[in-house]
């Protein structure tokens, strides 16, 4: 009869629909457990909310002590080590709503010649050796879209109130393809300071847009704006990039001007300064074109490497260092620790025979800050300049004391006039 057949067909269809419904529910449940609900979401959102500093469009240069060279001792006579600390690491974005300004897809030519199209910025991975690319992403307002980090990027400091992101670099500059693919980034912004290049090519082959950014070391402080703008263009927010470039350059300019007033006006009285990269029992001299030259010049000191024609980054010897006769030696904090501290650093060949060695005038700064060209450049210059010219005014965090007993560098403000 028609009605019973209809009921039987209805029952079979109902059972089939119920079975498929059960399969779909189970599948969705398994995918949810394995994290599909996080795909396309910012890590902050998936972790219960991401916190960004309030947006800031106007320049806010770091505060400098209200003193000039007339109020300060000859910087060549200051004795004792100093650590240069920035007073804050947080990077305020130029906008709270970058997506409202965004134009995607964005096609950009990478530094390796590849034309790359970016259509999705919901999961960003920005990695290089000095952390400048991630800093630019945060400054553009996309900090909550970051899904991983390089060694130099400390999200807990750059964006206070957030948890640390997964690390995708090993030994400071080696990319892990497996770690990156596990994070499912929708775009990778990087440069040749990390690699190997085969990993970046592997990511492209996996379908991930990889934007290679030119390294700005050679331009140093002058190259900061171009790097920020390229990151902004890749993320489809060129106007936000212009705003961040203008803010950053204005802060840098004001800081350089302020430090210029603290430095001696007579070139012969400016401290002869070198930047050494310490590792174990050897040291490298950072010369012209390394970025260190730009930093030294920006703080108003004498860049000895450029004066003597030393270029790039290369090992040096005791004879060359003694001949350079630096009054101040700038080093990275972890590098100083790798040799055992100030006392051990002074025993490295040639250092004790320089004016800086005789005065124990070594100024260290965090490896992750001192060469991090980006939105924080003005803060880096301010910390370093004050540490050299007016160490008694140098900022020091509350937990920075007690290092001298172990031979580590004295904390900010410990240098004294000889």
Automatic annotation (TrEMBL):
InterPro entries with a match to the protein in the record? ABC_Transporter_SBP (IPR050902), ABC_transptr_periplasmic_BD (IPR002491)
Q: Which Pfam families match?
A: Peripla_BP_2 (PF01497)
Domain Fe/B12 periplasmic-binding residue range list: 123-392
User: What SUPFAM superfamilies does the record tag this protein with?
Assistant: Helical backbone' metal receptor (SSF53807)
Q: Which family does it belong to?
A: Belongs to the bacterial solute-binding protein 8 family.
Descriptive protein name: ABC transporter substrate-binding protein
- Which organism encodes this protein? Pseudoclavibacter endophyticus
């Amino acid at each position: 009869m028609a009605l019973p057949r209809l009921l039987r067909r209805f029952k079979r269809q109902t059972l089939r629909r119920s079975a498929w419904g059960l399969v779909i529910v189970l599948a969705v449940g398994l995918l949810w457990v394995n994290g599909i609900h996080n795909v396309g979401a910012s890590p902050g959102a998936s972790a219960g909310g991401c916190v960004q500093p309030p947006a800031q469009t106007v320049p806010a240069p770091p505060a400098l002590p209200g003193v000039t060279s007339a109020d300060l001792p000859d910087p060549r006579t200051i004795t004792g080590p100093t650590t240069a600390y920035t007073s804050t690491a947080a990077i305020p974005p130029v906008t709270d709503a970058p997506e409202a300004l965004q134009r995607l897809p964005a096609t950009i030519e990478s530094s390796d010649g590849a034309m790359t199209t970016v259509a999705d910025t919901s999961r960003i991975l920005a990695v290089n050796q000095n952390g400048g690319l991630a800093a630019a992403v945060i400054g553009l307002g996309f900090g909550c879209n970051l899904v991983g980090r390089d060694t130099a990027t400390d999200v807990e400091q750059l964006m206070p109130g957030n948890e640390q992101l997964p690390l995708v670099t090993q030994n400071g500059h080696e990319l892990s393809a497996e770690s990156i693919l596990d994070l499912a980034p929708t775009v990778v912004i990087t440069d040749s300071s990390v690699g190997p290049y085969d990993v970046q090519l592997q990511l492209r082959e996996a379908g991930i847009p990889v934007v290679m950014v030119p390294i700005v070391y050679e331009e140093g402080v002058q190259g900061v704006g171009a790097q920020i703008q390229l990151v902004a263009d890749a993320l489809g927010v060129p106007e936000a990039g212009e705003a961040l470039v203008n803010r950053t350059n204005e802060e840098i300019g004001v800081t350089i001007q302020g430090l210029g007033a603290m430095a001696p006006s007579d070139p012969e009285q400016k401290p002869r300064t070198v930047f050494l990269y310490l590792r174990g029992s050897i040291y490298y001299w950072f010369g012209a074109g390394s970025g260190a030259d730009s930093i030294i010049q920006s703080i108003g000191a004498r860049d000895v490497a450029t004066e003597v024609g030393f270029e790039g980054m290369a090992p040096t010897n005791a004879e060359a260092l003694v001949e350079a006769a630096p009054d101040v030696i700038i080093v990275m904090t972890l590098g100083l620790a790798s040799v055992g501290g100030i006392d051990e650093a002074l025993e490295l060949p040639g250092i004790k025979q320089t004016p800086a060695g005789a005065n124990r005038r070594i100024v260290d700064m965090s490896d992750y800050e001192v060469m991090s060209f980006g939105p924080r450049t003005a803060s880096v210059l301010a910390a370093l300049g004050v540490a050299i010219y007016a160490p008694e005014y140098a900022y020091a965090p509350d937990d920075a004391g007690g290092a001298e007993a172990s031979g580590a560098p004295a904390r900010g403000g410990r240098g004294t006039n000889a």
